Write the structure tokens for this entry.
Amino acid sequence: MRHLINFATCSFLVAFFFLISFSTTACAQINNFQKQTSQKQEAPKHDSQFDNILFKTPNGWRKVEQNGSVFLLAPGLPAGTGCAIGLIKSTELNGDFYQWFSSSVKSSLQNGEKIVQQGEIQKDRAQEGYDIVYTYIVVEDSKKSRSHRFYLGANPGSRAEMIVYIATSQELFDQHKATLATFIENTDFANVYKPNNVASTNSNKANPSATKQPKNLPSGNQLSGFYLGSEYRTQFNPATGYYDNIATRTYYCFFPDGRVYYGFPKGGQFDFAKLEREDSKNFGRYQISNNKISFNWNDGSSYAPAAFESSQNSITIGKTVYGRIDEYSNFKLDGTYSTRSFTNLSGGAGGVSGGVSGETTIVFTRDGRFSEKNFVGYTGAGSNASAGTSQKGGGAGTYSINGNTLELTYSDGRVQRSSFFVHPENAKESEPGLVVIDGGFYLLRK
């Protein structure tokens, strides 16, 4: 499931959300319902297990174990904000499942917190045959700070399971719902899991529908280089009465011989022969013919040709515009660039309060020098104890930018290579307002 609905009390959302979370049939239905964003089919896989929960950590998210729970922390968040998925250790159910869930939600509140908005607890049944319940609440603490929370309970076999999604604002709650949807779809419970029941899921590879007559087409397969696109969709939010816009970034690398790679390598290493051996499923072939482009991937998947057009600095596949990512020769920056994140665990499940913050700042100068500062801090408190820790790091030295590789040579002899490009929308700026380093978005601060 790629499109997570809003969690409200509308009755039709009950079956819709959980069917597309746990049912292969429903995944096909949502795919047909929103053809404009349908994508390549791949079976979900688990890469981790916590207690009875089999799950796949979202790309870029960081796993933290705290007080018998696991928190998956969203990356790249502004300072003072937070978003996390919490996995709670299961328990043997003795009594009524609905009552256990209701009591667990209330007991997750910390001293001074109160519920200021609460949806009804919704009931449903997973395709695998066990009961599931969920609810959405808004919590306010004694300082009037609010957090938005979604609680999902499951009753596989004799176990009682809980997954919690927490964000410090409605905006962040909505921003990462697509990631939560994929996470839930890829989640199973070890005591009832049967591999042949795994539902298919959608990746971000394009399969857009044709919507207009393209123009300015190159003949044959003449694309070359990396392209970055943002795919948008809208959905109605009953809680606010407005429509929300959701964006997903997608990378393609085209080769003139007809090969294509889905993604953008990190580490500044662009050895595509090695990459194809290690990540073959994301390589394939593309063909441009009769104003349409088609893809056939190495894992055997393919889909119908989509409308295609090309301009000097971009291409359009279906409805999505992909900006060309430039390469560089002895490129220099002059300014302070930083990326920040903060995840607030206060009031989260497991009786934990506190948060994890991080910031990386790099000052570049035109004479080829740089200085870097890193900060990661954690504060946490449980019912009986509290703790705090922080770590600072950084360094200085010289840098070079060639091709799409940023090389930092520190004064102590260390060398660090990262992928690099100026965001296509900022490519014409004398001092780029946004650069991307190993997938992290660094804003020009001054």
